[in-house]
Amino acid sequence: MNKIKFIQGEDKHVKLLVRSPDNEPFTILSASYTLSRYGEVEAQGECYIDDHYLDIKIAPTKKALYILEVTYVVGDSTRKARLEVEVS
Questions:
Q1: With pLDDT > 70 as the criterion, what percentage of the chain qualifies?
Q2: Distance (Å, rounded) from C-alpha 66 to C-alpha 71?
Q3: What is the C-alpha to C-alpha distance for residues 8 and 14, in angstroms, rounded to an integer?
């Protein structure tokens, strides 16, 4: 699992590049995220979609390890990505 580092008090954009395994053209139809700490959701919302990039602005509030889970729809498939967000 990939890890992103924050310093407490920061709010910044996290951008994910979505790629096709076969280099086939595709369109991301929708995308959303949840930011959770110890299983409790602290923030959630819609991602900004820019072609094949998903842009999420988050502001974790506590020093802890968070999980950022992104759910996106391509064609008739729903896919997910999960990242660790470490706040120190």
A1: 100
A2: 16
A3: 16
